[in-house]
Automatic annotation (TrEMBL):
It comes from the Bacteria. It comes from Chitinophaga dinghuensis. This is Collagen triple helix repeat protein.
Length: 181
C-alpha cells in the first residue's frame, strides 16, 4: 500500500511538471496586407459655436382670412454636413435654455413635462428645428438666452453586420472574424 501511495504521488508530480505553461515562443507569423490610408479627419468632431437661432411661425390660412400659428420652425446652416456624413455620422443639437455664464443645456429632440416639444431633422448642410413654441434666441438685459450648438461626430469604423454565423462551425467563425490559423 505505501508503494501505491508513493507511485500515485510520483505520477501527480510528473503530471504537474509536464503541464507547465511556459515554453519557447513560436515563430513570427507573416505580416498582413497593408490597408488603405485612412482619412486624416476620421473621428474628428465637427461642432459649431453657440448660435443665435431665430424661429419663424408655421401658419395656416383659415376661411375668412384668419391665420393660425400651428408651430415654429428654424433652419441652422451646417456647411460641413455632407451627404457622406449624413450616412455615417451622428448629428447632435443642444439648446442652452439659460445664458452663457450659467448654462442649462438640453439635448434635442426635447419633449418636456410642460408640453414643450422641439424636433430635429437633418439634411445636407442644414439642420431643421420644429417646435410647438417660439424657442428663438433672445436677449434680456444684454444677456443672450436660448442659444443652440450642433456637433457632427463622424463614424470612423463600420460595425460588422450581424450576419448569420454558425458559431458551432469553426470554419464559418474563422472566416467571419478574419482569423488566421
Amino acid at each position: 500500500m505505501p508503494s501505491l501511495v508513493l507511485l500515485s504521488g510520483l505520477f501527480i508530480l510528473i503530471f504537474m511538471i509536464s503541464c507547465s505553461k511556459e515554453g519557447p515562443a513560436g515563430p513570427t507569423g507573416p505580416a498582413g496586407p497593408a490597408g488603405p490610408k485612412g482619412d486624416s479627419n476620421s473621428g474628428t468632431v465637427i461642432y459649431s459655436g453657440w448660435l443665435d437661432v431665430p424661429y419663424k411661425p408655421d401658419t395656416v390660412h383659415r376661411i375668412g382670412g384668419k391665420i393660425d400659428t400651428i408651430g415654429y420652425f428654424a433652419i441652422i446652416d451646417a456647411p460641413k454636413l455632407t451627404l457622406d456624413l449624413l450616412s455615417t455620422a451622428e448629428v447632435k443639437v443642444y439648446l442652452n435654455t439659460s445664458n452663457p455664464s450659467d448654462p442649462v443645456i438640453y439635448s434635442l429632440p426635447y419633449v418636456g413635462t410642460s408640453g414643450l416639444n422641439i424636433q430635429v431633422s437633418v439634411s445636407k448642410q442644414k439642420i431643421q428645428l420644429y417646435a410647438n413654441g417660439n424657442m428663438s434666441t433672445f436677449t434680456n438685459n444684454g444677456i443672450k438666452y436660448q442659444q443652440y450648438r450642433y456637433m457632427i461626430v463622424p463614424g470612423n469604423v463600420q460595425a460588422r453586420s450581424a450576419a448569420s454565423v454558425n458559431w458551432s462551425d469553426y470554419a464559418s467563425v474563422k472566416l467571419y472574424l478574419g482569423l488566421n490559423d
